[in-house]
Amino acid sequence: MNFINEVIDEETIPTDCISNLTVDNLIFTLHEGKLKVLLVKYNQGLATNKWGLVGHWVRSNENLETAASRVVKNTTGVENLYLDQLGAFGDVDRYPARRIITIAFYSLVRFDDTNLTHGANAIECEWFDVRQVPTLMFDHDNILASCLNHLKYKVRHEPIGFSLLPEKFTLLQLQDLYESILGVTLDKPNFRRKILKMDLLIDCKEKQRNVAHRAAALYRFDVEVYEKLAQFGYTFEY
C-alpha cells in the first residue's frame, strides 16, 4: 500500500488520481478505556516528520466513500467497518503550496480487529489518546477537533458502541466509551440506570473470565433496538 495525502509534489501524484482532491480519515478505536485516533508520521514533502491523519488522493474512477474505505481497509486490515462522512475542508491556504480540497471521513474499529500497515510515504503509524495527540500537519488539528465535537453530539443522540466495543462487554467498558467521547466523568449508578432503562442491552448471563479484579457481568447490544435508536434517535442527558 502507498497511502499519502497532501504531502507529495504534483508531478508525483498517481496518474489515475485527481490532482487536487483527497480523503482524510479519522480512524477511532477504544483501547485501555480511552478513545484513540490513528495517526501516521510522513517522510516526504512539506509533511516530513509531521504527524497527520491517514489519507490519499481520490482516484478518477472511484467515489469519495470508496476512496475513504480503501484507505481505512489498507491501513487497519478491517473489512467490515463503520464509515461516515464528516465534511469537506477547503480553505484556500489549508495546504501551503497550492489549492487542495479534502473530504474527511471517520471510522470506528475494534482494536483487536486491527492489523496496522503504513505505506512507503510514512515512517510510523500509531494510536493516540484523542486528548493527547501531537501537533498535526496543515489543518488536521481542526479536522480532528471538528470530528470530536461531532462525536459528542452523536453519542448523545445515537448509539455508537457497536463498532468499538467487543461483542460482549461490561457496563464499565460502555461507560469508558461515553466518558472518552464526552470528556467528562459520569456518575456510575446514574449512567447504568439510564443505559439499562433504554432496553438497548441484553444480559449475556455471563461474567468476565481470567481477570485480576472481581468479574463483571457481560452484556451485548440488542441489534433491533440499536438500529431503531440509530434511525430515530434519543437524547442522553448527563
From TrEMBL:
Signal peptide: none annotated. It holds the Pfam family NUDIX. InterPro entries: NUDIX_hydrolase-like_dom_sf (IPR015797), NUDIX_hydrolase_dom (IPR000086), WH-like_DNA-bd_sf (IPR036388), WH_DNA-bd_sf (IPR036390), WHD_NrtR (IPR054105). Residues 28-144 form the Nudix hydrolase domain. Residues 161-221 form the NrtR DNA-binding winged helix domain. This is NUDIX domain-containing protein.
